[in-house]
Amino acid sequence: MTGRTFALICVTWSFLISQRATAESDSDRLEKLERAVEQLQQRNAELESEVHGLKKRLAAVPEYDANGNQKPPKTSSDGKTLLEKPILGEEKPATFVVQRGPEIKLTLGGFIQANFEDGDVSAFEGRFGLTKLKDRFRLRRARINLTGDFAEQFDFKVEGEFENSDGLNSNRTAFSATDIFVNWHAYAEAQIKVGQYKAPFGLEQLTSDTQLFVIERGLPTGAITPERQIGVQLWGKPFTQVWPEQKDLLTYYFGVFNGNGRNTTLNDNNNFMTVGRLELLPFKGQIFGQDASLKLGGDVMNSRDDKGTNISQSLNLLVNADGSLSPYVLPGADERWAWSADAWLNIGPFDLIGEYLAEDVHGRAVAGMSPGFSNFDPSGYYIQASYFILPKKLQGVVKWEALEPDQVDSDNIHSLVLGLNYYIHGDAIKLMANYVHTWSRFRETHPRFGDDTFDEVLLRLQLMF
């Protein structure tokens, strides 16, 4: 074989190999293209099915006219209801709300409490005789609130109430503020709270309106505690870091306030109300196989008030000769000291709560002028027991309370409360029923004023959102 012949054979062999490789490569590419086309066709069928289903759902959604009335479903010429509805124009974007500031959390909430009150309405608050109220349906509270947290260790609350006044607390009938405050919580041991909120005095007063076991707070609480004030407060749990497993063992509160109530930006004088509270949780564990705890508390308060300051919503007996109570507006300047002690024992479905409150109201001379009233020292207490008859559903409550206004002889008022609470969805949806029997020692010793015992039935529906 010559060299030329060998070269020709090599060239021919290389050409045949390259042609075979090309043929095999084209075959692979063709096969891949065919698979890709099949996948696209399958995905296209799935999308068409999804669009078809969406049109059916849109067609099933009822339409409404400008007055809010539902329009009848559209039908074809043969009277059959159309199952599909064409989508005309661009789809309207969803409506949403975002916070304007840099908050990391915002929570919108509120609650509604509606009462039915029959019999001697609010007699347990001293509302009888000249101040007696009529049977009624009552929108007791309707509040809306917004709370939020910042990454910089600040939280806040803004709450307002659609108030219906009955002349008991004020003449406010419009939307008004309840809690508005900012709280700095960088250190659990020392937090700072600024704004309007409840001064830290009185266990029953500080218990949330939605978590009470009886419909209304008792007369001693309403007469002696300072309720909401505007000011600043230092508070915290000092064992949070040094003893984490016992961080709730001790909680302290110390606040300085204007001292003349909520939604009032003017102070009555250059003096301030100071309030302090300590809470101790000496036991938290189990008793008889049930979760149990014991909580103890104590409060102290001091205030120097000028003439004309309202120091209580239900303490003044002197202006009502029949023994009924009304708000006490100082006829002269005073200095007040108040203190209280409370205990709360919980053993599974059983709760026992007791609280004692006392106050010294002493007149003081201003610019050589006498105070114009005699010193008096009101005091009161209550004992309350409750038990879940049906676990977490039906709760029975009994409460005994007493107040001595200490303005005239034998002016004690006592009340017995019997109640049932039905928790439809915890405190979020709750039905409450109370029977309240009240005795007036003053009217018993002065029978010319009429009845000395009073009865009231209260019903409440509560809903939180």
Topology:
Elements: H1 3-60, E1 105-119, E2 136-149, E3 154-162, E4 175-184, E5 191-198, H2 203-206, H3 219-224, E6 228-236, E7 250-257, E8 273-287, E9 290-305, E10 310-316, E11 326-329, E12 334-347, E13 350-363, E14 379-390, E15 394-404, E16 413-425, E17 429-440, H4 441-445, E18 453-464
Antiparallel strand pairs: 1-2, 1-18, 2-3, 3-4, 4-5, 5-6, 6-7, 7-8, 8-9, 9-12, 10-11, 12-13, 13-14, 14-15, 15-16, 16-17, 17-18
Describe this structure as you would to a colleague:
The chain has a 16-stranded antiparallel β-barrel with strand order 1-2-3-4-5-6-7-8-9-12-13-14-15-16-17-18. Strands 10-11 form a two-stranded antiparallel ribbon. It is α+β, with helices and mostly antiparallel strands. It has two domains: 1-66; 107-464, Porin. The chain is elongated and about 115 Å long. It is 16% helix and 44% strand. The model is unreliable at 5-9 and 80-85 (pLDDT under 50).
Q: What is the architecture of the largest domain at the second tier of CATH?
A: Beta Barrel
Q: What fold name goes in the CATH topology slot of the largest domain?
A: Porin
> Could you give the distance between the termini?
102 Å
CATH class membership of the largest domain: Mainly Beta
Give me the count of strands.
Answer: 18
Corresponding CATH superfamily of the largest domain: Porin
**What is the C-alpha radius of gyration, as a whole number of Å?**
37 Å
Order of neighbouring strands in the sheet with most strands: 1-2-3-4-5-6-7-8-9-12-13-14-15-16-17-18
Helix content: 10-25%
Counting helices, strands and paired strands, the structural category is: alpha+beta
SSE order, one letter for each helix or strand: HEEEEEHHEEEEEEEEEEEEHE
Total domain modules: 2
Residue ranges: pLDDT <50 for 5 or more in a row? Answer: 5-9, 80-85
Q: Quick one: overall form?
A: elongated
The largest sheet, given as strand count, sense and whether it forms a barrel, is: 16 strands, antiparallel, barrel
